[in-house]
Amino acid sequence: MKYFSLLAVLLVSQQVIANRNPVPVYKNKNTPTELRVTDLLKRMTLDEKILQLNQQTVGDNNNPNNKGYKKPDFPAGIGSLIYFGSDPVFRNTVQKRAMEETRLGIPILFGYDVIHGFRTVYPISLAQGCSWNPALVAQACAVAAKEAKLSGIDWTFSPMIDVARDPRWGRVAEGYGEDPYTNAIFGVASVKGYQGSKLSDTYSIAACLKHYIGYGMSEGGRDYHYSDVSAQSLWETYMVPYEAGVKAGAATLMSGFNDISGIPASANPYTLTKILKERWGHDGFVVSDWGSVEQLIAQGVANDRKEAALKAFMAGVEMDMVDDVYTQNLKKLIAEKKVPMSRIDDAVKRILRIKFRLGLFDNPYTPIVDQRYLQPESKAIAQNLAAESMVLLKNDRHVLPLNDHIKQIALIGPLAKNQADLLGNWAAHGDAADAETILDGLTKEFGQSTQINYAKGCEIDGEDESGIDEAVAVAKKSDVIVVCLGERKNWTGENASRSTIALPAIQEKLVKELKKTGKPIVLVLTNGRPLELVRLEPLADAIVEMWQPGVEGSAALASILSGRVNPSGKLDITFPLTTGQIPIYYDMRQSARPYAGKYQDISTDPLYWFGYGLSYTNFVYSPISISAVKIHKNQKLTATIEVANNGGLKGKETVLWYISSHASSISRPVKELKYFEKEEINIGGKRVFKFELDPYRDLSFPDADGKRHLEAGDFYLLAGNQKIKFELID
Ligand code: NOJ
């Protein structure tokens, strides 16, 4: 009895203590997120709120474009940090300060540029698009997310889904090429890979769609420049991947550096608020690009930092990346009644919401594990993706694959024994030492039976021809020449534009000399943009576009050269014949005189169109079948096409389905990609590929405010070399 009364007293007193010090609603993980957000917001002071809207950096910045901004110190209650390190213990120490030394214990959100892998670097995004395998891209992003998460990162500034049609622009490497639909599909795949089924999953990190919007249109391919984007192009080209990414649940977006036809992307109420928040209902937040709020002054729309803060914040940029413009000005702007508290509250809620969704309040610390990186299953994904991304551009007289008669391979070129440049730009914590050289990859693949004779020939750049004689001598004693040319990794990426997309003359000279030996030449390209190959292409018997393939690239290349893997990549971007042809992309509008208006001095066609890519086998397309020749607007059309493998090797084929329309109230591109599917087909086998066409989704088009129109008329469906007409009726 005595025992029970003691227990009762204890329980009652505990209750009294709990009532006096109840666990705040925002700390209770069983409470719905929105209630937690509102509860926390209620408790915050204005200073605490403003701190949430800020991002600073910690660690050694490895981006040369941002170096000058390094900040050694930051307040414990900062909203977010770009964490350049990879040590979870350090991150946890910083996080502990936020959790334990601030009044409310709001966790910091740690972000980083995890672009194509964290340590297990996989191919650059431009290459990934050529795989036409979004499921594999999602797997690679999930590997990156796990490695990043275990290194203290909660948020990646990726994917970049800026449709890019000017290969002089260095950032063309970071997106999925020239087509809006392709960028949408791969953007969504990577969001799903990073974010998993929910943000609070153990290895999920938040994604960031960037750079919203129109950055890919930078004039002349010069980085950070003006982008003249008509409202029509904005909607039918640039918005497409963003709308898809937002619908797929991307937690955040980054506003761009560019000035969109006079209203900069980081101060654009139409794109940032009217469309993103109001029309699409995005409830996460927008972070500025590095200093892009302050840069509104340079762009000529703000007189000073205060006005820049006002414009960006009121337009819809919630978090200020590194430039402290919000911390220094928002309070004054509120006092002057230029910024209402409701906007501050909305912005803070958006940031807190993502922190809650990520589970940061409940699990603020990174678990410490030993084996974080380069796990066998992660490397296997990186290798498959590298192999599927490579594009066979030429293969005269079946030079490839290199068969058993080849006893000696001359492996030549500045990229043949190179590791660093295989990783590409923005390679996060990638280590060149993790990447095997092409020489090592080929030596392993071909084993004892084939001798590899290596000579560098020349450097990537410069005028030194002294190595060419040795390369020629090596070529003469070999059965085939594999010549590895390309770009340095820092020739693409941020602030890495080039006036010509040709390779340096020294590399072309090397191949010219090798050609004189009469030996077959296989040209292997390592680059981050389409190249001008007009002089090199005639010298080569085969060309493999390897891109910047990541740590497993050499093994993947070797598997293709030996024929163990049949190449299956197709270009996600057009290769112009010459730099002067830029811009050139497959979904241009029809000219008024399609038969005229050509260049006088060169062909008007590019060297390789979007969608081009060869296989070692032979795929034959049958005519397209459709379920009806006339459909109503509310009716679906089923289209099928049979593809037969008539060659001597099994292989994967991607069927790209395009539509083209006859006439409409707003002119349409020559053709538009609407769907694709990649399948393996055995030797002698056939496969039926199917496309369920939904008129509203696939045949409608946006106007200059994004409103979609579906108009009756004649349409064509195209796949491979096949084309069929159908009619849409009311
Ligand atoms: C500037 C780049 O434009 C952006 O893509 C990147 O995410 C940020 N810097 C952060 O490093």
Quick structural gist:
The chain is built from 19 helices and 27 strands. With 730 residues, it is an alpha/beta fold. α3 packs antiparallel against α11, α6 runs parallel beside α7 and α7 packs parallel to α8.
Written description of the protein model:
The chain has 19 helices and 27 strands. It has 730 residues and is an alpha/beta fold. The strands form 7 sheets. The chain has a 6-stranded mixed beta sheet with strand order 11-16-15-14-12-13, with helices on both faces. It has a 5-stranded parallel beta sheet with strand order 4-3-2-1-10. Strands 19-27-26-21-22 form a 5-stranded mixed beta sheet. Helix 6 (134-149) packs parallel to helix 7 (180-195) and helix 10 crosses helix 11 (325-335). The structure holds 1-deoxynojirimycin. Residues 63, 66, 113, 157, 210, 289-290, 494 line the site of 1-deoxynojirimycin.
Question: What layout of secondary structure does this protein have?
Answer:
Layout: H1 2-20, H2 33-43, H3 46-52, E1 54-58, E2 80-83, H4 88-100, E3 109-112, H5 125-129, H6 134-149, E4 155-156, H7 180-195, E5 208-212, H8 231-247, E6 252-255, E7 259-260, E8 263-264, H9 269-279, E9 285-288, H10 305-315, E10 320-321, H11 325-335, H12 341-357, H13 376-389, E11 391-395, E12 408-412, H14 420-423, H15 438-446, E13 451-455, H16 468-476, E14 480-486, H17 505-515, E15 521-526, E16 542-545, H18 553-562, E17 619-621, E18 625-626, E19 630-632, E20 637-645, E21 651-661, E22 672-681, E23 686-693, H19 695-699, E24 701-702, E25 708-709, E26 713-719, E27 722-729
The structure holds 1-deoxynojirimycin (NOJ).
